[in-house]
Amino acid sequence: MTDALSSQIAHLYRRAGFSATQAEVADGAARGYAATVELLLDPAKTDAVSVPDPAVDYSTYAAVETVEERKARNKIRQEQRRNTIEWWLEKMVVSDRSATEKLTLFWHDHFATSIEKVDTAILMFEQNKTLRRLGSGRFEDLVQAVAKDGAMMVWLDSNKNTNRKPNENFGRELMELFTIGIGNYTDADVREAARSFAGWRFSPTGGFDVKLKLADVGSKTLLGQTGAFTGEQVISMLSNSAAAAKFITTKMWRFFAFPAPGDHPAIVELSAGFVRDFDIAKLHKAIFLHPAFQTTEARQGLVKQPVEWIVGICRQLGIKPSSLTLMKPNLVQSCARLNQELFAPPSVGGWPDNGYWISTATALARLQIALAIAGNADLSWLTGANATQRLDVIAKKLAIDGWSNSTANAIKAASNPRQQLAAALASPEYVLN
Amino acid sequence: MTISQHHEPEDMMAPGISRRSFMRALGLTSAAAASVPVIGSAIGAPAAGAKTAQRTTTSASAATSASAAASANGDGILVMLTLYGGNDGLNTVVPYSDSAYLSGRAELALRDTDILALDSSFALNGSLKRVKGLWDQRKVAIVQGVGYPNPNRSHFRSMDIWQTARPEEFTNTGWLGRWHDATGPDPLRMVNLGTSLPRFMAGTKGSGAALNPGKLTLPGGAVGEATLTELGRGSANQTLGPLGARIAASNADLVRTKTTFAPILNASQATGGGGSTNLEGGGAAGGEYVAGLTRDLQEVSLLIRAGAPTRVYGVALGGFDTHAAERDQHARLLGYVDQAVATFYDEVSKHPNGQKVTLVIYSEFGRRVIANGSNGTDHGTAGPVIVVGPQVKGGFYGQPSSLTDLDQGDLKFTTDFRSVYATVLGQTLGIDPAAALGKTYPALGFL
Asked: CA B265 → CA A231, B124, B273, B284, B301, distances in Å?
C-alpha cells in the first residue's frame, strides 16, 4: 500500500492535471502537498514543451458551389478536425503544465462549443487558445472574449441575431449555462438580453464587429435594471453577480472535486471568496487546498472522463499519442468510442459526468482500448517482475493505492503482461478519477 | 447516486428463451392494464372536436378500454425515440390552414407541396411521407398539445422533466428506470442504442444495457471475458464506493448482455459496424448511406424479431435546436425519422414477435409560434407526441393548442405528457402506471 502523502499527491494530479507518473508522485511526496499544489498551478510558469500548432486554415470557411467542391471541402474539414484533436491530445500528454490543459478542458466543457455545427477547425483552435490564455484570469474577461469568439458566434447563432427579430440562442445559454444558472433569470430576461447582442458579427477577415444597422440601441430591462445596455454591459452585469460566483464555484467544484449541491459548505466558503474578485486562479487553487478535496467522498466521487483516462494512461506509460497514429483503434477513434470527442461535446451543456461514462458499451470499449494501448507500450518494467510482484508493480506505475480482491483476481487471471495491464486499466479503481 | 447490482446468470435468461416465459418468471403477465383509466378517443376531425376531447371522454372510455384490453394486454415492447434539441411541433404536425401559423411563420411556414394533409386543418411535414402512409393505415396516433405546467425553456431542465417525469422536483431516477427497478432490474430488459444511457433509464437498483449497433464481440476473447467477469465481482465491494461498484457492475452486465445478444447480433449481416459518434451520425452499410437512427432501429428490430427478452428500448436523434436556417435542417432530420421509423414498422409488423411493439416519438419542447429573424425558431413549450405501432389506434388525440391564446408567445399545453406515459405503462408494459409516475394520470385511448 501507498503512504498517505503519496496517495494524496496521486489524487491531486488526477484532478488538477492527469494521472501522475511515478517520478511525479515521488517528487510531490518529497516536496509536500501544499508545495506541489503551488508547483502545479503557479501561473508564472509556462509550458516548456512545445507542440506544433495543428495544420488548420480558413480555406474551408467559404461557401461552395458544386457537389464536387463540397466533397473536397468536407474531406479537408475532416482532416483539419482530426489534426486539431490530435494536437490537443498530444499537448495534454507531453505538456509540463498539465494543470493548464486540464483547466482548458474545464472551460471547453463549460463554454461547450461543437465543431459539428461550427465546421471550421481553425475556429475551434482559436477558441481553445482563448480559453487557455484567459482561463485562469478574471471571469468577466473570459466571458467577454468567448462571447466575441468566432466559433461561439457561429455555434449559438450570434452571427445571425438582428434587432428586428432577435435570436435568443446565445442570450439564453449565456445566462443558463455560462454565468448565473437556471433559476436566476426569467424568460423575459432572456428576450431582453438577446436584444443587446443584436448586430454582433464575426468574420475571418474582419474579426469581431458590431453592425450598428442591425443593433438594438433601445432601452432594455433585465435582472431588475433598465438601461440602453450593450452586449458587453449585459455580460459585465452577469459575470460579476453573486449568482455567477456561486454558479461558477459550484461548477468548478463538481468538475475538480465531486458533485455536490450549491449549499455544500465547501462551495459556500469558496464562493464567498470568489465573489470578492472573480479571480479564477485563486478559486482553482483553493479547491485543491480545501480539506473536503481529500475526503473519501471526493476521492470516490468522480469517474474519469474518457479523455482523462486516455491521457493519463499515455503519461504513465510514457507514450506520445503521435506515436500511436497507426494503432487500431487510434486515440482519436478511442475517445469517440467512449463518447467523448474533443471539440464536439454532445450539446451546449457540455459532457455529463459520472453515470454518463458507465455503461456496458463503455466497459467494452475500455477493455478494447486498454488492450490496444498496452500492446503498443514498452512493458519491460512489468515483464521483469514475477507473478506475485506484478500487482504491486502495476499499482505503482498507475499511482493506485491498491487493488480490491476482484481486480487483483482479474489481473492474476490474465495470462500475459499486456492483458494484466489492460485488466488494471479497465478496473473500477483506475476508471475512478 | 445509484448502485448497480451484480446479476448472477440465471437459466431462465438463456438465449432462445421465449419472451412470454421470461415475463411469466417476472410475474408480468397479469393484466394490470385492465384497471387503467382511459380517456380520450380517436378524433377524426380534431379542429371541430378539439374542444370537447377531454370532456367527452367518459362515454368513450368504456368502449376504448375494452378493446384496448383485448389488443394490448400489457406484454408489449416499448421503444422510446427521443428527439434532442426541441423539435418544432408546428412544422412537424402543421396547422396549415391556420392564419396565425401562416403569418407567424412567414417564410418558414410550410404550405402546398411542403406538406401532406391529414385533414382540413393539419398536415404532416412533407418529409414524413412513409409515416403518412402508416397514418393512412390507422397505425399512427398523434397526441396534440402535449406538455406540462410552468414550462421550462431550458433544453436540459425540460428534457430532465420529460425523462424523470417529475416537473416539480429534481430527481436522479427516470420514469422507465423506476419501471425497471419495480419489475426486476436486469440489463437485458432495458436497452439503449448508443454508448451512454439516457436519463429516463436511470434507476437505483440496476442499469439497462448500452449497445452500439453492429456485432457484439468481447475484446481479448476468453481471457477478456474472464477479465470482465472478475472485474464484475467488484459490484458488491463497498470499499470502491457507489461509483466504483457501478463501474464494476457494468463489466458483469456486459458479459451477461453478450451471452444473450451476441448470438442474435453476430448471426446477422443487417447492421454496419462501429459506434455512432454523435446523435446525427450516419454510416455506410453495403455502400449505401444509412442514417444513424435507421441503423439503431434496425438493431432494435433484429432483437425484437429474434425474441430478445427486452421490454424497453431507447433510440435518439439530435440536432433539432433549429434557431437558424430551420427549413432544410428540420426537413432533413424528419427525413431520417421517416426512413428509420417506417422501415422499423415494416419489419416488426410483419413478424409474430413484433405485433405488440409501440414506438413513441417525443422531444423536450416545441418551438415558438413566431419565427425569429434568422429563419429559425426559439425555444417553445408544448408539442405533439407521435405514437406508431401495430396495436395503435390511429388518429388525433388530445386537443390542439391554440395559436392565438398564447403564454408569452408560446403554446399552452392541453395534455399532460404523463398521460402518454401512463398509457404505455399500462397498456404496453402492463404495470400500474403509478408505480413509475407516483400518481395516477388519465390514460389516452391510442392503445
From this structure: 54, 35, 11, 18, 11
Which residue has 367518459 as its cell numbers? B58
Q: How far is A39 from chain B (nearest CA, A)?
A: 30
Residue found under cell 406508431: B388
Residues 369-388 of A with CB under 8 A from B: 371
Question: Using the beta-carbon criterion (under 8 Å), do B153 and A172 form an inter-chain contact?
Answer: yes
Q: What is the pLDDT of residue B238?
A: 86
Cα torsion angle, B111, B113, B119, B125, sign: negative
Residue B52's H or E segment, with its range, is none
Encode burial over B185-201: b for 16+ CB neighbours within 10 A, e otherwise: bbbbbbbbbbbbbbbbb
For chain B, the residue count is: 447
Instruction: Report pLDDT for A2.
Output: 74
Q: How far is B226 from chain A (nearest CA, A)?
A: 7
Whether the CB-CB separation of A289 and A37 falls below 8 Å is answered with yes
- In this predicted model, what pLDDT tens digit does every residue of B192-243 receive, in sequence order? 999 999 999 999 998 999 999 999 999 999 999 999 999 999 999 889 999 9
Q: Between chains, do A167 and B373 touch, taking CB under 8 Å as contact?
A: yes
pLDDT band at residue B91, thresholds of 50, 70 and 90?
very high
Q: What is the mean pLDDT of chain A?
A: 96
When scoring B152, B195, B326 by the number of chain A Cβ atoms within 10 A, the one with the most, hence best to mutate, is B195
**CA pair distance B126, B94, nearest whole angstrom:** 10
Q: What is the mean pLDDT of residues A182-207?
A: 95
Inter-chain touch A363–B154, beta carbons under 8 Å: no
Q: Which residues contact B288 (CB under 8 A, 6 or more apart)?
A: none
Nearest CA in chain B to A259: B1
Nearest to B373 among A162, A190, A338 (CB): A162
Q: How far apart are CA A175 and CA A296, in angstroms?
A: 33
Do the strands B140-147 and B415-416 form a parallel or antiparallel pair, or are they unpaired? parallel
Among A86, A90, A128, A88, CA closest to A110: A128
Residue A367 is nearest to which of B187, B224, B247, comparing CB atoms?
B224
Dihedral sign from CA coordinates of B52, B54, B58, B62 = positive
pLDDT in the model for residue B337: 97
B contact test, residue of A162, A197, A364, A401 with most B CBs within 10 A: A364
* Rounded-to-integer distance, Cα A201 and Cα A220, Å: 20
Instruction: Answer whether B230 sits within 8 Å of A431, measured CB to CB.
Output: no
A260 within 8 A of A253, measured Cβ to Cβ = yes
CA distance A423 to chain B (A): 6
**Closest by Cα among A6, A197, A187, A30 to B365:** A187
**Facing A303 at nearest CB: one of B194, B243, B278:** B243
* Interface mutation vs chain A, best among B3, B190, B196, most A CBs within 10 Å: B196
Q: Which residue of A has its CA nearest to B233?
A: A406
Strand, coil or helix: what is A1?
Answer: coil
> pLDDT tens, B236-274?
988 999 999 999 999 999 999 999 999 999 987 544 433
A420's CB contacts (< 8 A; 6+ apart) are A382, A390, A394, A411, A412, A414
Of A187, A422, A431, Cβ closest to residue B247: A431
d(Cα B401, Cα B414) in Å, to the nearest integer?
Answer: 6
**At residue B334, what are phi and psi to the nearest 5 degrees?**
-65, -30
- Does residue B66 register a pLDDT over 50? no
Any residues with CB less than 8 A from the CB of B70 and at least 6 apart, and which? Answer: none
Task: Establish if A45 touches chain B: CB-CB under 8 angstroms.
Answer: no
User: Half-sphere exposure (CA, 13 Å, Cβ side) for B131?
Assistant: 30
